[in-house]
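Dear U.,

For the methods section draft, I wanted the exact inputs and outputs in one place so we can describe them consistently. I've listed the two proteins in the order they'll appear in the manuscript figures. Please don't edit the token lines directly; just add comments below if something needs changing.

First protein:
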Amino acid sequence: MPEQNDAPKVRCELHLEFDSNESAEKVHRSVELDNQGYIVTRVDGRVIHAEIEADSLNSLLHTLDDFLACTGVADKIMAKKD
């Protein structure tokens, strides 16, 4: 009988493009701490690459929604500072 860890995973990959390398770096730094254990992220130029893996579609959607909300807020805050 397979163990629970062998259950199929649900995966999602995001590529969020920003106006500048600096903006991408700042947004990434502001949300990176909350991502640990849930999302693997990296910055490549103006793009934040994010990979999410979850045990269920509902869990993936919850994580995705939270990540997009946090990056959206960080981006809006940075835009007001410029």
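Second protein (the one for the lower panel):
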Amino acid sequence: MRKMSTNKARRSHPEEIEPEYDFDYTKAKPNRFAGRIAKDRVVVLLDPEVSKVFTDSKSVNAALRGLIAEPKNSKREARK
């Protein structure tokens, strides 16, 4: 009968989190998704409550363009 390796023994309890993990970075592969983002774009993380309102990039861009197009003197006009 073969002994069970320690890796298989750890897998039997997936809810347990080890205090430290030793990764072998020599086996790491390049990120295959990194090239999908154009160089002139910026990736931003939204808070969960914001992402419920803005569900796609079109809605976020429309809202931000609305802020950009707003006249800069609106604060002065509101005071009068």
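Candidate sentences for the figure legend, describing the second protein: The radius of gyration is 25 Å. The mean pLDDT is 79.

Thanks,
Y.
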